[in-house]
Amino acid sequence: MPVYERSSATEFQVIDRWSGGVSWLAHPNEEGERASHAIRADDGVWVIDPVDARGIDDLLGELGDVAGVAVLCSYHARDAGAIANRHDVAVHVPRWMDRVAERVSAPIERYKTTIGESGFHVTRVEPLSMWQEAIAYRESDGTLIVPDLLGSGSGYTVSDERIGVVLSHRLFPPRETLGELDPDRILFGHGGGVFEDANAALDDALSGARKRFPRALLSQFGTNVRLFAAAMRD
Length: 234
Description:
This protein has helices at 56-61, 80-86, 175-178, 198-208, 213-232, and strands spanning 13-18, 21-25, 35-41, 44-48, 66-70, 91-94, 108-111, 121-128, 131-138, 143-146, 150-151, 164-165, 185-188.
């Protein structure tokens, strides 16, 4: 099983669908479980951290016209440029985020705190100097997007967790950034979203991250090393 499949995807798997959006895996069998999202807003459809696949444009068309593509992590340039070019839109990147612009062959639009007219406000997080991410939250419908600090994939969760804090930050989970939010749904850069009792699942992830660190270290260390090494090659 590859960590990240670099070949063009000939199909995809829808992992979440709700009235305002859809999430998919372009390579369902890869270990990294890179999730992509398309979310409806007042100005159109916003495509978040996408990995491209044959047929994705038809999936997006079910929601409406694409208003823009957004990248929320310095290691999630992925196929943002290809999708933006096909839909004649810009790739939106926070002003402070590095690495993305030189990896995207499409117009770049920088923003400070709000992604276009999507209603999503972002909070800057720099877990490491080389790792920058924008946590996006839309209060109007309680949609929270966390690219890397949290996830539901095999490299994140232990025990009966529905959401896991990334191993490198379990001892110091992002309570100040996320603890005051009240999400109805949470989407991740890796793994399926959480739609049922999302706020309770978030509280459990943050409050129990340190307690469950020893178990996570034993079960996830090798997976996290592989994921990190593969990401460095992007």
